[in-house]
Amino acid sequence: DKPAALTEKEEQEANKYRAMLKAGVPAPAVRLKMQSEGMAEKLVQALFPPDDCSSTPQVSRRASKLLTLHWTPLGLSEEQLGQTVWAQKHTDKVLSPEIQKLEQLFSRTASATEKPAKTEKKPSRSVKKKAKALEMTRAQNMNIGLKSFKGLNPAGIAAGIRDLEVAVFSVEQLSRLEEILPTPQEIQAVQRLIAGPGGKKKTREEETGQGGAPDQELDPAEVFCSNFINVVRPRAKLTVLITMKSFDTQCDDLVRRLQIMSRACSQITSSARLARLLSEVLAVGNVMNEGTQKGGAMGFTVDSLLKLTQTRSVCKSMTVLDYIVDTLLSKEEADVVDFREELQDLESASRLPMTELCSEAQSLCGGVQTAKRELKNIRNDRENKASASEQPATRKYGKLKLTPAADSGANATPGDARANLLSALKSARKDEVASETTTAPADPRAGLMAALRAAHPAQSTDDAKTTTPADPRAGLMAALRSARPPKDVAESSGKSPEQDEGEEHASTSKSEGADGSAGNREAPRASPAGVPTLTKFLKKAERRCDELQRISNETKQTTKDMISFFGETGQDPGHILSCLVKFANLTKESKLKRQRKVEAAARKKRIEEAESRNKKQQQQRGPPSSSSGAPITRPRGKSGP
What we know:
mainly alpha; 29 helices; 62% helix
């Protein structure tokens, strides 16, 4: 059935929706909008007849071998289509060779054969798990910071910090490490994550993925933290590396700035031009302030020099500073105005706060002291590991229990002897306390026998050995003798402690190869490879710190002398220097201002002299006359001949 005819009013309402169809809005969307706005079914059927297939275009669903082309079809009726460019159907003109080329380029089967290679990699990515031992922001910052370490993996970074290998890192990398170095809490969190719920710690092969497959893979930031599990005091070692890397540069720069400050203060106190200019300002100021409370002054503050431009003359064209500069230039004392030439380092020193220089010097020397403490801690760690790795049977010397190393004389190392001596003293003290609490009261005859032995020291020692126990002091003296080898043996070696530390690796391997039992026992870990370098650095740094301290004290004294030179005790030297720089600039401007005035006056004088010469010449030639002798007269208001 054909739709009923629309009235004029209904045609106006339908035209709105026809315009939407012309604009390219899909027919189903227009129909849905008409229904939502409550349009009559008569209007809907007029625009979308039941037998019209344009409202819902039906496309043949053939199995296409080509990829889908993403576009938006137009829902146009036959009447609307006849007025568009789409009325001319050119699709029938596509030739079969072109279709073959199209199928070759955009075939769906070709893309399907290429995709499996990509889809095979996706499951591996989805299987990967991110550990949650670190905060998200912290782990992200670590990952970003690790990208600047090209050629260094997390294990190499941790080994470089542990062994104090200063040549491995640059200054920028060390500063970046200072930001991303894991804290002890983060290291413990990663360690618990690696251990797992059962508390069993994984091996290094499992952590890095070289051994068996780990239960869960770590984030790169957590892998970085896991390499610091066995590093002792990583933050302190990093501070030592930063000090070793940047000490020379910072020390040279600090010495240079301190010397600039010292030279500037010395130049100020020895400048005769500045002293002459200050005396001229003082004289002019006392004349102007005569009869007031500010008159008769013996001196003035340095910042008062900047106020010389605030007081102007009656004609408002000259300041007090302009007057002083004009007076000095008229007295042919131009060198006094140019006092800045004697203060070459004034401007550079004005940008150097003295308090910051002193704090930098203290911080630099404090870094050296931190390095010394770390070196001492490294040596203590080595001694503790050496004593812990060896557990021989103890031998009693009275109340002392000493190991054979303490009783072996020159073969014992000083570190082992000290450790054994301390342990022996502690055990003797414990036994003494236990005996006082558990044993019976002492026999009074023991005190009498001791008094008799003291009265007769020449008595045979064999009886003493059989009747009395060993004197505890004997074991103590033996331990002290083993801890301090004979002087001639120490001098004959001719090796410093640094050389002994450098040769520790070779001595350890020789001792293990000589004795079979020593080869079976685990040897203590040698000191880090950077300890000899650190020892040499500390020797050099201590000398430079002494020199830096001397230069700093000299600079402090010169600044005090400069402050006393101006009579302003307790004033900041930076304030005085900045005021002098500004005063020098104002003086230079006043000099240039006077020079411009002089040049303008000379130019005006030359013009006046030229005009006077022209007048004299005209008077000498007389007025112009005509050929008849009568003067030439010109009518008023006209010019030219």
